[in-house]
Every structure is written in structure tokens, then in C-alpha cells.
């Protein structure tokens, strides 16, 4: 999709905050496994540091539609998903985030240039 770049981490122990800062992320997508414990810890760290940064849960859990909102995610996508659906959700979340942050060209960035 035009104007989107994806950066991935395979290891939850990797420094994801450093990647968010380095890439100036506008949206974070987290894989939400069956129990979701580690995913919830990561979500909390992200929201503590960058409360306006949208975080989307991806899951094959049959109840992700209710769990995602209850746990503080800004959206969710059920797996398996098609790429067109993913793009629609990303566009929707990105447009919403840009409307809620003043000066949308700098959406999710602190004064020091880091996202947030």
C-alpha cells in the first residue's frame, strides 16, 4: 500500500520501544495469542509511553472483537484476514488518529521527535 512501511519483530523480548521511536510509528499491530499475557504487557508499555499511538490486536481468537476493546486496543483484526481488509482497517485507524492529534503531519510525535 502506498505510503505504508512495515517493520516486524519476531521476538517479544526485542526492544520494541526503540523500534517505535526509530521508525516514528503511526500504528502498532500486536499478535494476540490465546492467553494474550505478553501482548497485554507490551500494550501497557506502549500506552504508558505513547497514549495516543493506535495499537491493533491481530488474533484468531473467536472473541477478539470483545477482548480487544475491553483490554485497551484501538482496534482488532481477525485472522486469517485478506490484505484489502487490513488496508481498510489501517486507513481507518490512521485517519482517526490524525483527526485526534493537533497538526496531523506530526501525529504521534513528542517534542523530541519520538512517536507518542
Features:
41% helix; disordered C terminus; alpha/beta; 116 residues; 3-stranded parallel beta sheet; 11% strand
Tell me what the structure shows.
The chain is of the alpha/beta class and 116 residues long. 41% of the residues lie in helices and 11% in strands. The protein is built from four helices and three strands; from the N terminus they run αβαβαβα. The protein has a three-stranded parallel sheet, with helices on both faces. 22% of the residues are buried. Residues 102-116 have low confidence and may be disordered.
- How many helices? The count is 4
Mean pLDDT level: 79
Strand order of the largest sheet: 1-2-3
User: Can you count the beta strands?
Assistant: 3
First-last Cα distance: 23 Å
Summing up helix and strand content along with how strands pair, one would put the structural category as alpha/beta
Q: What's the helical proportion of residues?
A: 40-55%
Major beta-sheet overview: 3 strands, parallel
Can you tell me the residue ranges where pLDDT is under 50 for at least 5 consecutive residues? 102-116
Strand content: 5-15%
Q: What shape does the CA trace take?
A: globular
| String of helices and strands | HEHEHEH
Question: C-alpha Rg, in Å?
Answer: 14 Å
Amino acid at each position: 500500500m502506498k505510503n505504508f512501511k512495515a517493520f516486524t519483530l519476531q521476538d517479544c523480548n526485542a526492544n520494541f520501544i526503540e523500534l517505535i521511536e526509530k521508525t516514528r510509528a503511526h500504528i502498532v499491530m500486536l499478535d494476540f495469542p490465546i492467553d494474550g499475557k505478553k501482548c497485554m504487557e507490551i500494550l501497557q508499555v506502549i500506552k504508558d509511553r505513547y497514549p495516543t499511538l493506535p495499537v491493533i490486536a491481530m488474533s484468531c481468537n473467536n472473541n477478539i472483537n470483545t477482548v480487544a476493546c475491553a483490554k485497551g486496543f484501538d482496534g482488532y483484526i481477525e485472522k486469517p484476514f485478506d490484505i484489502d481488509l487490513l488496508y481498510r482497517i489501517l486507513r481507518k485507524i490512521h485517519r482517526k488518529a490524525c483527526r485526534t492529534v493537533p497538526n496531523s503531519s506530526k501525529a504521534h510525535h513528542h517534542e523530541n521527535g519520538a512517536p507518542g
